[in-house]
Design brief:
- The chain has 20 helices and 14 strands.
- The chain has 478 residues and is α/β, with parallel strands linked by helices.
- The chain folds into three domains: 90 residues, Beta-Lactamase (2-Layer Sandwich); 179 residues, Rossmann fold; 138 residues, Helicase, Ruva Protein, domain 3.
- The strands form four sheets. It has a five-stranded antiparallel β-sheet. A five-stranded parallel β-sheet has the order 7-8-11-6-12. Strands 9-10 form a two-stranded antiparallel ribbon.
- The radius of gyration is 37 Å and the shape is elongated.
- The two termini are 71 Å apart.
């Protein structure tokens, strides 16, 4: 230990009096004087150095203990210590350039009985590389936070408009006009259509027609676990149940305040939730789990279903009063088989998209393939059409046209009556078997692509997670 360090320690002992110094405290004090990460300089009120650590003395070209008795300005040019001595105020986290190096310094005034008696200067980090690394990490984290915020914002806004709805048939144009009229009304809406007809597209468009700047909250009713449905819809207060967020959480309807709640596949909601949903839609008020406070809300409800809710009402699976509530205004989307003139429009549009995605340059369709595709009934509607095009594009060479031989069997051997043509081929199985086989292959391919992650596979297939689990069991896919 140097003479200066011994002198400082003796001063500590004098202040402590008869207190027996703990060996850990002694080691800690010694570390403070020899701290390899921070340097320390102590001066009196006149700026005369009383102590400077060994590394700082070496940095300024001084011998050990040589700094004592010298004015700080003669040792450390441009130091901020005199500023603290004159103002009596600390300086924390300042950047100081000395001998071509940047350092972070802090200067603290020393006072006794309210009188300034000196100052302590500390140089933190011998290099700013660590600070630069920290700043880089902070910038990266800020970018990630901004990205997640934007992603959340995008998830709560509508992205489609009526002018993005394809089709020139009278059926789809009439449906669009009806939806536009409903969009101007302050009423709840029920969208009915087969799977793949574009119910979500219409929901986005209805919301965006008048309230594009407001929240659009989508809820896939079939994907909500039963035991979490209530907290998802209505929110909860802190401590409402085990594992609850310590600050509580607003529910779907609170998040949609002033905007729209889109209840996709509403037919899958359990009866217990239907009763509570009915009250929210009737009264426009919610009560969070764990709370007795009623909160009034203003929002529009758009529900969608591919099942006739009236049939479910008769079967006792859907509340009649809820049906009348959600079906105040209805938009019924016609399937592709009822507007075959729109099929070529979809084929050409999505082929361009697939060319961009697959980096291909498929020129179009042969006359026979276009005829087969137009005559097919498309039980999966637009979603199936896209899937068929993707399957076919893989088989077609670049710059060629899609020929009928490249189409899936269920399309090639289908006629207007809706039955497979009778041909002598081992592939001539019935359509239901073909669709089942195709669906199973799609599920297996999705699982392979996602490394067996069923949640990601369900998203890739645009299929509710519960539906995927059921099909995995039905098809015995492990």
């Amino acid at each position: 230990m140097t003479k200066d360090e011994k002198r400082l320690l003796s001063s500590f002992f004098e202040i402590l009096g008869n207190y027996r110094l703990d060996p850990i405290i002694g080691r800690a004090l010694r570390f403070l004087f020899r701290n390899p990460y921070e340097s320390i300089t102590i001066v009196d009120k006149d700026g005369i150095v009383h102590f400077m650590d060994k590394s700082s003395e070496e940095f300024f070209g001084l011998k050990q203990g040589e700094a004592a008795g010298i004015h700080i300005a003669n040792v450390e040019p441009n130091t901020n210590i005199p500023l603290t001595l004159s103002s009596g105020k600390p300086q924390i986290g300042k950047i100081w350039d000395v001998k071509g190096m940047r350092r972070i310094i802090s200067v603290y005034p020393l006072k006794y009985d309210g009188e300034l008696i000196g100052a302590v200067g500390k140089q933190i980090f011998h290099s700013l590389d660590a600070i630069d690394r920290i700043n880089h990490q902070i910038q990266r984290l800020n970018k990630e936070i901004n990205y997640l915020k934007q992603k959340e914002k995008d998830a709560q806004s509508s992205v489609y408009r009526f002018d993005t709805i394809l089709g020139t048939s009278e059926a789809i144009r009439e449906t669009v006009e009806i939806a536009k009229k409903i969009a101007t009304l302050d009423t709840d809406v029920l969208i009915v259509g087969e799977s793949g007809t574009g119910k979500e597209l219409f929901a986005h468009s209805i919301h965006g027609f008048m309230n594009a700047d407001k929240a659009f909250i989508k809820v896939n009713c079939s994907a909500i676990p039963f035991d979490l449905a209530e907290s998802q819809f209505f929110g909860y207060e802190k401590g409402a149940f085990t594992g609850a967020n310590q600050y509580g959480k607003p529910g779907t309807f609170e998040a949609a305040e002033g905007g729209t709640v889109f209840l996709d596949e509403i037919s899958s909601l359990p009866l217990s939730i239907q009763a509570k949903l009915l009250r929210v839609l009737q009264e426009r008020e919610v009560t969070r789990l764990g709370s007795t406070k009623i909160k009034k809300l203003k929002f529009r409800s758009i529900a969608a279903t591919n099942i006739d809710l009236r049939t479910l009402v008769k079967e006792g699976k859907f509340r009649q009063d809820l049906y009348y509530r959600v079906a105040k205004a209805m938009v019924i989307i016609p399937p592709l088989r009822e507007r075959r003139e729109d099929i070529p429009v979809y084929l050409n549009y999505f082929l361009k998209k697939i060319n961009q995605s697959f980096k291909t340059n498929i020129k179009g369709f042969s006359d026979k393939s276009l005829e087969a595709l137009t005559e097919y009934d498309w039980p999966g509607n637009v979603r199936e059409l896209i899937n068929v095009l993707e399957q076919t594009a893989i088989k077609v060479f670049d710059k060629d046209r899609i020929t009928v031989e490249k189409l899936p069997d269920e399309v090639r051997f289908f006629n207007r009556i809706g039955t497979p043509e009778r041909i002598e081929t081992p592939l001539a199985m019935n359509i239901e078997q073909r669709l089942t086989t195709a669906e199973k292959d799609m599920i297996v391919a999705a699982l392979k692509k996602t490394g067996g992650n069923r949640l990601k596979a369900a998203r890739l297939l645009e299929m509710p997670r519960s539906t995927l689990y059921k099909k995995l069991k039905d098809y015995n896919i492990s």
